[in-house]
TrEMBL record:
It comes from Periconia digitata. Keywords: Signal. This is AB hydrolase-1 domain-containing protein. The keyword Iron-sulfur does not apply. InterPro entries: AB_hydrolase_1 (IPR000073), AB_hydrolase_fold (IPR029058), Sec-Metab_Biosynth_Hydrolase (IPR052897).
Length: 335
């Protein structure tokens, strides 16, 4: 009997120690959710509907972090963008809190009617992918270190309508082409005086007559709420230190840095190191089914596939559905 009492006391004290070392109740143990935008988009604008939906479910707003990538509206590099995600992520990881990364891509890669995204790596999802290189994964890392202290891990990555680097292209970076060779006709590069000129920025407004954002990015939202779609393409004059060739700039959508978009990915997170969920949009005008299927069906790729009746930017056209999916994998990853 005495041995049984001693064993029970030991278990109780061990459990108390665990409680002191890290979060234990529902709100304290929930992972942080990092929201990473694609090219041309500002995280705090494009993810605001999802952030509000998460708050309505009772999610702590301090655990929801929409990231503005430095390369949007400036000349920052891809490394600057990756570092911006890493710095936010490490803040939570060092507290012993797990994280979920949500990525979206803002690039369409269609040239002469042929989809060529296998030659050009998309952006928001690949930044999130590069950011987790070397970070502990919930797949192969215990939530507690050898001393019993809670440690933060990446639970999963959720890619909404993302353009992804192919495994072969990261393994052979010499195959990565210049973005100008495979970009859609509505991309505009500045300056573009000659083929030898290295552009500073990439814009999305090169052919607004045939390829407006309401068609390429927000087509579902345009059908259901045209005024809201226009809101995300709102025009207004604001000072731009980068481009002085026009008097009209866009407040919601902005240019992206050429150096950032033209850079190659360095890491593939979806070969088993991390749990990666790919969410395809049934009405996505930018990522057709043959394209996302080519990602999912690669030899060595390990994805969980989800489908949404959404366009290329579901966080504004289907914020509740996006929120439900995020919470689904928050719960599954936390089990």
């Amino acid at each position: 009997m005495n041995l049984l009492l001693l064993f029970s006391l030991h278990c109780f004290l061990w459990a108390v120690g665990k409680a002191d070392d890290g979060p234990t109740d529902l709100h304290q143990s929930r992972p942080a959710i990092l929201l990473v935008p694609g090219a041309f988009h500002q995280g705090q604008i494009i993810y605001e509907p999802v952030r509000q939906q998460l708050k309505l479910t009772g999610y702590d707003e301090h655990l929801i972090h929409a990231i503005d990538l430095p390369s949007v509206g400036s000349l920052a590099t891809r490394d600057d963008d990756v570092n911006a995600v890493v710095q936010v992520m490490k803040k939570y990881l060092e507290q012993g809190r797990d994280v979920v990364l949500v990525g979206n891509s803002g690039l369409q890669l269609m040239l002469l009617g042929i989809y060529l995204a296998n030659n050009l790596q998309g952006y928001g999802c690949t930044v999130a992918g590069d950011a987790v290189a070397g970070i502990p994964s919930a797949i192969n890392t215990s939530p507690y270190d050898p001393n019993g202290r809670r440690r933060g891990r990446v639970l999963n990555l959720i890619f909404f309508s993302g353009y992804l680097p192919y495994i072969a292209h990261v393994q052979h970076p010499e195959t990565h082409p210049d973005i100008r060779l495979v970009s859609p006709t509505w991309f505009a590069f500045w300056p573009n005086g000659s083929p030898s000129t290295i552009p500073l920025t990439v814009r999305w407004d090169g052919d607004l007559v045939n390829f407006p954002p309401q068609k390429e990015f927000y087509n579902v939202l345009q059908q259901e709420n045209p005024q809201q779609a226009d809101y995300y393409v709102e025009q207004s004059v604001y000072p731009s230190p980068v481009e002085s060739y026009t008097t009209c700039h866009y407040v919601k959508l902005r240019n992206s840095s050429f150096a950032a978009l033209n850079a190659a990915s360095r890491y593939i997170p979806y070969t088993g190191d991390f749990e990666v969920i790919y969410v395809a949009g049934k009405q996505d005008n930018s990522v057709p089914a043959p394209l996302w299927e080519s990602y999912v069906n690669q030899a060595g790729a390990k994805f969980t596939l989800e489908m949404l009746d959404a366009d290329h930017v579901p966080m504004v056209s289907r914020p509740r559905d996006v929120t439900d999916l995020i919470l689904k994998y928050v719960q599954l990853g936390s089990v």
